[in-house]
Amino acid sequence: MALRIRGGTWHYHFKFDGKRYGKTTGLAATKRNETTAHDKEAKHRQALREGRSPRRIPAREFTEAAKAFLCGAETQYRAHPNSYRRIATSFASIKEFFGREAVSLIDEASVESYKCQRSEPRSSVIGMFRKSSLGTHS
Q1: Is residue 100 a part of any domain in this protein?
Q2: What is the dihedral of CA 94, 99, 104, 108, to 10 degrees?
Q3: Contact predicate 16/48, CB 8 Å
Q4: Burial class for 3, CB neighbours closer than 10 Å (0-12, 13-18, 19+)
Q5: Same structural domain, 81 and 31
């Protein structure tokens, strides 16, 4: 139990499962508060052992989440393979748009940007071929 004084208050730090944890106790660094500070550290350790303390959730990239979703969709639509193919095809543009963006950072505004980008007319090789075969040039 590593208890120390920082800025006039008791702070503790320790390692648990190979990760470092540290926190201020919010208690003034007096001899009278030392036992209470040790108790706070012990409670934090106990919470970690019991899985009650919130743990940091790693960021998940959109491409990784999309891959997992499509894997589940393939199973869900096993009886309807064309539905799965349509979903997978639809995901091509959204995966390109969001790429490695963290899923937690994708908000309503990001989705609206994607929708606007999808609705913009785009020239394609096929479209140019069709125009040239009709004899129209632009």
Answers
A1: yes
A2: -40
A3: yes
A4: middle
A5: no
The whole-number pLDDT of residue 65 equals 94
Task: Judge whether residue 17 has pLDDT over 90.
Answer: no
CA 25/CA 23 separation, integer angstroms: 6
One-letter amino acid at 50 equals E
Residue 133 lies inside a defined structural domain of this protein:
no
Span 36-71, pLDDT tens digits: 999 999 999 888 888 876 666 678 999 999 999 999
Cα–Cα distance for residue pair 75/122, rounded to 1 Å? 34
Is residue 11 in a domain? yes
Domain assignment present for residue 132? The answer is no
**Mean pLDDT score across all residues of the chain:** 86
User: Which pTM was predicted?
Assistant: 0.48
